[in-house]
Amino acid sequence: MVVVTITALTVLAIGAATHWVRYGQLEASVAQGTEQEAGELQRLLDRGPASAEADAMAGPPAETAPEDAFDSRFDSVEHLLWTFMSTSVPAPDEVIVGLVDGEVRYTYDGPAGEGLSHDVIEEVVREHGQPDRTVHTIGQHDGRDIGFGLIHVDIDGDASEGYLVVATDITQGRQEILDSWWRYVMISLLFLVAASAVAYYLIGRVTAPISRLREATESISVNDLSGRVEVPSQDSDVAHLAENFNGMLDRLQEGFEEQRQFLDDAAHELRTPLTILHGNLELMDEHDPHDAAETRDLMLDEISRMNRLVDDLLMLARSRRPDFVRPASFEVSAFLDDAFARISALSGQRRWRVDSRCEGLLVADRERLMQAVIQLAANAVKFSAEDDTIAIGASWGELDDGGRRLQLWVRDTGAGIDVKDQARIFERFGRASAGRTVEGSGLGLAIVEAIARGHGGRVALRSSLGAGSQFTLMLLEGGPSPEPAETPVESLS
Fold first, then answer.
1. pLDDT digits (tens, 9 = 90+) for 437-484
2. Residues 272 and 344 in one domain
3. Start and end of every Histidine kinase domain (predicted)?
C-alpha cells in the first residue's frame, strides 16, 4: 500500500510539474510576441516613416492618419503608432491597440478582439503601464484569459505618452493544457489501478511460499519436526529459501533423532551393568574381605565397560557433526606401516600380514582412519581362532570421472558372517548370530561405518561362514565429497 501511494504521488507530481511548465511556456509565448512587436516598433522608429506604402496596408484607414503621417521623420507618438499599425498584421489570436495619453486611438482587431472594449484596454494600461518598460500581465475578461503586453512609446520633442498594447487570447491554449491534465490524471489513475492489481497478484504469488514458510515454522515443535515447505517449481530466491529451510529442518530432525537415539541407547545399555552393580552390592558380605575384593573387581570391570560404552555412544552422536573428520594430506604407505605396527600388537596368536601396499597421498582424517582400522582388526581377533590370518592392504581404484579412490581393507580367515546378518551388524548394538557370546558393546562396526560416511565413503563387506571376512573402506583420493554416499555399507558376499 505504501509503495502504491508513493507511486501515485510521484506520477501526479511529475504530471503537475509537466503541465505547470506548459503553462509557463504559454505565458512565455505571449511575452515573446510582445517583445517581437516591440522590436519591430523600434526598427520602424530607427528607419523613419514609411512612404506611400502606408496607404497600401490593411491597417487603420488613411483618414485617421495624423497630419504629419508622411513626414520624413517621426515627430509625435501618434505618428509612430499610426505608421506601425498601418504596416503590421496581427496574428489571429492577437489584438494590437495604440493609445495616446491614456486613450485608445488605433485598433487593429483580429478574431481575438471580439468583446474586448476600449475601456478594458485603457484600464489595463492605467493599472499596469510603466514608463520606459515593457510590461506583461494576464487577466480575465468575459470568461476569457487574455495576455497583455504593454509597450511604452515616447518621442523626443513630444510631450504625449503612448502605449502599444498587444492583447493575446490564451483561453484555448490554457483549456487545452487543462484538458490534457485531466486526461493525464484519468490515464494515470487507470494505470495505477491496473498496476496495483497486477502487483497485488504478483506479490501474492511471490509471497505465497513465504506465507507457507511462516505457517510451517509455526507448526514445528520439538515433538514434530516432520513438516516441510512446498518448494516452488520456478528457480527463484524464494525457492532457494524454501530448499534451505527444508534442509535446515532435515538437519534439525536428524540431530534430534540422534540425541533421542543416544538417550535411548544409553538408557537401554546402561541398565544391565547398573543392575549388576546394584545386585552385587546388595549381596556383598562387607565382613568378608574376599567377597568384598571380588565385588570390587567386578564393579571396576563394569564401570570400565560403561565408560567404553558411553565413549562409543558419544562418538556416534558426534559423527554427524561437520567437524567429526578433519581431513589432511598424508602418505598412504606410511599410514599402512603405522597401522600394521599397531594392530599386530593386539594378539600374538594370530598370523599378521600385509596383502598389498600402494604409494600416493590421501586427503582424510588420519586418526579417524586409524581408529577404524584398529576397530576392524580388533573384531577380526574376536571372531578368529589361534593361527588364523589377519591381513591389511591398500590399493588405488579408478573412477569413471577420471579420479581415484583408495580401497583400504582388513581381512581374516575366521568364522565369517552369515548373509542374513551382514546388514544388521552395522547397526547400533547389532550382532551376528554367532557373535552373541562375544564380549563387546556392539557399536564397533557402527563407528567404522560412521567414519567412512564422514569421509563421504562407504564400507564394503565380503564374507561367508567358515571362510572369514573382509571389510573394505572406500575413500575418495581428494577427500570427503560434499554429499556422503547414500549407501554407506555395501555387501560383496
1. 455 556 788 888 989 998 989 999 998 888 899 999 999 998 876 544
2. no
3. 265-479
* Cell of residue 435, nine digits: 557373535
| In a shared domain, residues 357 and 469 | yes
pLDDT tens for each residue of 196-244: 888 888 888 777 777 777 777 777 776 777 777 777 666 677 778 778 8
Distance of CA 277 to the CA centre of its chain: 61
Please give the C-alpha separations between residue 38 and each of 79, 104, 152, 386, in angstroms, as whole numbers.
16, 18, 9, 129
Does residue 351 sit in the same domain as residue 420?
yes
Inter-residue contact 201 to 161 (CB < 8 Å): no
Instruction: Determine which of 77-81, 293-297, 372-376, 433-437 has the lowest per-residue pLDDT on average.
Output: 433-437
Sign for the CA dihedral angle at 479, 480, 483, 486 comes to positive
Residues 80 and 227 in one domain: no
Whether residues 305 and 441 fall in one domain? no
Q: Which domain holds residue 137?
A: 1-49+63-178
